[in-house]
């Protein structure tokens, strides 16, 4: 009787051990799934419908039923992207909806009723650049409502060779580069304050 009870205990213990090992083996699989979900959730960046694409952003271009054209592409410093068939397309300054329409229009020569969607996978254009005769030229994070004067201050001020009255800002608007003059002497003295514009991502301040 005691032998049968002891044997039953051994069988029960074996079953519990087997179930425990199975659970342990399944845990990494669940972790892998979780990592996969987390990874896929980071494939697109959060942007509103009015977000304007900027240089160095990463874009996902999906053309329905055309896997050879669909791809992730960077926006070059000149604001353009390159795709098969349509070649160079101006992207900077456009929303994702506007760019999708532009690509679809170019593809109509080769594809019947192309359906294009565009998403931003990485936002890298939320920076401004200060070049020329400043103490610390380079790229700077764009803070909300940042003005030209604030950006120049972030760059550490001017060198002794700076032409403070001849500063200008370069900006991409509707696919074209626009130049805004800026007179530092006037701005700090309260004259023509409207030239101290609020900066946008990708703006370049040049101090000759």
What's the SSE blueprint?
Blueprint: H1 2-41, E1 58-63, E2 71-74, E3 80-83, E4 87-90, H2 96-107, E5 116-122, E6 127-132, E7 138-141, H3 148-154, E8 167-173, E9 176-182, H4 184-188, E10 204-207
Parallel strand pairs: 6-10
Antiparallel strand pairs: 1-2, 1-5, 3-4, 6-7, 8-9, 8-10
Walk me through what this model shows.
This protein has helices at 2-41, 96-107, 148-154, 184-188; strands spanning 58-63, 71-74, 80-83, 87-90, 116-122, 127-132, 138-141, 167-173, 176-182, 204-207. The chain folds into 3 domains: 1-41; 58-122, wza like domain (wza like fold); 127-207, Roll (Outer membrane lipoprotein wza fold like). With 208 residues, the protein is an alpha+beta fold. Strands 7-6-10-8-9 form a 5-stranded mixed β-sheet. A 3-stranded antiparallel β-sheet has the order 2-1-5, with helices on one face. Strands 3-4 form a two-stranded antiparallel ribbon. Mean pLDDT is 82; it is low at 1-42. The protein is built from 4 helices and 10 strands, in the order αββββαβββαββαβ. The protein is 31% helix and 25% strand. The radius of gyration is 29 Å and the shape is elongated.
Structure, briefly:
With 208 residues, the chain is α+β, with helices and mostly antiparallel strands. Helix content is 31%, strand content 25%. The protein folds into three domains: 1-41; 58-122, wza like domain (wza like fold), CATH 3.30.1950; 127-207, Outer membrane lipoprotein wza domain like (Outer membrane lipoprotein wza fold like).
Question: What are the main properties of this structure?
Answer:
five-stranded mixed β-sheet, elongated, 3 domains, 208 residues, 10 strands, wza like fold, three-stranded antiparallel β-sheet
